[in-house]
Amino acid sequence: MATIYSDPSSVIYREIDNAIEIPGKRAPLVLGGRDFTSVTEVVTDVNLRPAPFGWYIGFGVSFVLFLLYVTCVFLLLTTGVGVWGNNQPVGWAFDIINFVFWVGIGHAGTLISAILYLFRQNWRTSINRFAEAMTIFAVVCAGLYPALHVGRVWLAYWLFPIPNQMAMWPQARSPLWWDVFAVSTYATVSLLFWYVGMIPDLATLRDRSKAKLGQIAYGIASLGWTGSCRHWHRFERAYLLLAALATPLVLSVHSVVSFDFATSQLPGWHTTILPPYFVAGAIFGGFAMVLVLAIPAREWFGLKDLITMRHLDNMAKIMLATGMIVSYAYCMEIFIAWYSGVHYEQSLFQFRALGGPYAWSFWAMMFCNAIAPQVLWVRRWRLNPWILFLVANIANIGMWWERFVIIVTSLNRDFIPGSWGLYWPTWIECGMFLGSFGLFFTLFLLFCRFLPIVAMAEVKSVMPQAHPHHGEPHKQTHDERRSDYSPDEGHHPKH
Amino acid sequence: MSTLNPPAETVVAPSLDIEVPKVVGLAAEYDDVTAVTDAAAKVRDAGFKFWDVHSPFPIHGIDHAMGVRPTILPWLVLGGGLTGCTFGIMMTAWINAFEAKMPAPFDWVNLQGYQFLISGKPLWSLPASIPVIFECTVLFSALTTVFGMLLLNKLPMLYNPLFKLKNFRRATSDRFFIVIDAGDPNYDENKTLELLRSTKPLSVETVED
Questions:
Q1: Per-residue model confidence as pLDDT tens digits over A27-40
Q2: Of A167, A200, A237, the CB nearest to B74
Q3: What tens digit of pLDDT does each residue of B1-31 get?
Q4: Cβ of B102: how many Cβ atoms within 10 Å?
Q5: A177 touches chain B (CB under 8 A)
Q6: Contact between chains at A167 and B113 (C-beta distance less than 8 A)
Q7: Taking the alpha carbons of B127, B130, B133, B137 in that order, is the dihedral positive or negative?
Q8: Which residue, among A196, A75, A185, has the nearest Cα to A139 in the 3D structure?
Q9: pLDDT at position A476
Q10: How far is B143 from chain A (nearest CA, A)?
Q11: Given the DSSP bridges, would you call strands B176-181 and B23-30 parallel, antiparallel or unpaired?
Q12: Residue B150 CB: number of other CB atoms within 10 A?
């Protein structure tokens, strides 16, 4: 564990474990005896110092994968969607699997930035910025799939209600059209939330940058922010409002995505459990992705005092909880299929889990999402970054298989045996899937290089020093005594 | 800019070939949240109107110490949300349930609705339109929140005399400033300086434009 001064003014070091719960005391969230200056330094150094060699390697690999994506999209556009393996009866395949996979990953970012904000979970401050960045890049990867799968991509603007002389309008009662609104609103609001939260930190970079270009670029991006408390007042109110708006929004987005399936008549899709099941799965998969990004980032960028073991522990607990909800949904789906007495539903689930051609994918999903996360019950394993990283990767893989199971196993065998068929992806589909990771990591690494990856202003505001009259309760005003303002302790000796 | 600590240095002799910068305020620097909060309460009690505290993060309790009144932003957002909701209802109805042309003042717009009858469902019904109405409400509210906040804060404003102070660069990192505008009715070069120095700042500087 990291070390900290037992008292910020003394020079005696004490080992400190902030993952321990002490009733009545809030654990410190910033370790290493850091003050405001050193928090600024450790975060801005990521941007203002030369990039580590590993960054160039990572960026190179990601960019090559991104070029693979561009190549596959080029072949798709010049040839047609026939280059994909989708066909009757499996008309939706990798395109929609990957769309749901990516949009689901985005959800954890909004959960951390909005829902945990409303619940005053102060530990979110160290991880919210890059989780929000993850959201935006995941939504970019997601949004490209439906846009590309419409067939004639150059007519994709027909999805939007644009006035035209043909009086040709979209069908407003279709869940697919609801999806257009849900995903585009989600992308817009996530981008606004991300940018607004970043303005004060961009101003910090503006003021610390030595290079002329950096001063100009960060200067324009930070809009002339001076840290005025009259501005902070409206800023904080705007941030709270955005959090309150993003919370129902994020729940609605994956619910609407699940309506694409739930409102159809197809066995395996036509169930009311789908919206909550999708949302829980999205948060599960999203937190897995946050861990996959956070564990190496805190190591490589030297952010271990800000993204502490307590943060990883909290995320592991959320993964375990949402993983259990998802496992419950899997079991409940099977139970309801049996209990419904509907012949088609029963045989669909029999094919899905036991006798069907894709039964192995169902068990891959069960292993990754229901069984593997159970190791997180053990505290010692939760506090081991290697095990956590492994489980998070398995969960990511599992969530991809979940979407494969939902889409392909339901479509490949529906009502009439004569219309049954198998589906296998072509190399272009696989290339696009791999390539979308290239796109995601290219954007993410650029973000790590040029933008503040930890919300410095927010981290500082949860440090004990940030609270006026800290340690002198009798001098505190009514506002300063509010329970949601009470500081996280700086003194937290090891037990 | 010149340091007013000691005040004798503040007297700058005007010279013919140098344009004398205009003093627009005083900036006191602090390195501690408690000090700046207590100082802010003093400045508030002295009856100043045009002044501000600058800090690297929002200080809890500073609104009270400064006497900042709650912003009207939530009401703007309510307006934005209601507009979005109305827009969502009207749009879904217009594009799927009406075949009329645009009404009178807008009849030059080539915008005709379409009665989209599908599966014998009603042309417009609330349940089928809820998702789109909801998303429009959220979208309009979020745009109002962000642009309303920027507008009320008068941002973007890339030029600010404060940026000329070298120390002020730390206002976004680890230092706190109280800036009193020279345009304030209570402003008096010497008395205001005395007031700020009585709050034990690290330094007091003039802000020049």
A1: 778 887 788 998 99
A2: A237
A3: 444 454 444 555 555 666 778 889 999 999 9
A4: 15
A5: yes
A6: yes
A7: positive
A8: A185
A9: 73
A10: 8
A11: antiparallel
A12: 19
CB atoms within 10 A of CB A5: 16
For an interface test with B, which of A9, A36, A263 has the most B Cβ atoms less than 10 Å from its Cβ? A36
**pLDDT surpasses 70 at A80:** yes
Helix or strand (DSSP H, E) at A258: helix A229-262
| Tens digits of residue pLDDT in A200-223 | 999 999 999 999 999 999 999 999
Task: Check CB contact of B17 with chain A, cutoff 8 Å.
Answer: no
- Taking the alpha carbons of B3, B7, B8, B11 in that order, is the dihedral positive or negative? positive
| DSSP labels, A14-61 | EE--TTS--TT-PPPSS-TT--HHHHHHHHHHHHHSPPPHHHHHHHHH
DSSP 8-state assignment for residue A478: T
At residue A374, does pLDDT exceed 50?
A: yes
pLDDT band for position A10 (cuts 50, 70, 90): very low
Helix or strand holding residue B177 (H, E): strand B176-181
Whole-number Å distance between alpha carbons of B173 and B193: 25
pTM, full prediction = 0.89
Give pLDDT tens digits for B66-120. Answer: 989 999 999 999 999 999 999 999 999 998 998 887 778 877 777 788 888 888 8
**Cβ–Cβ below 8 Å for A224 and B68:** no
Listing DSSP states for B91-118 in one string gives: HHHHHHH--PPPPGGGTTS---------
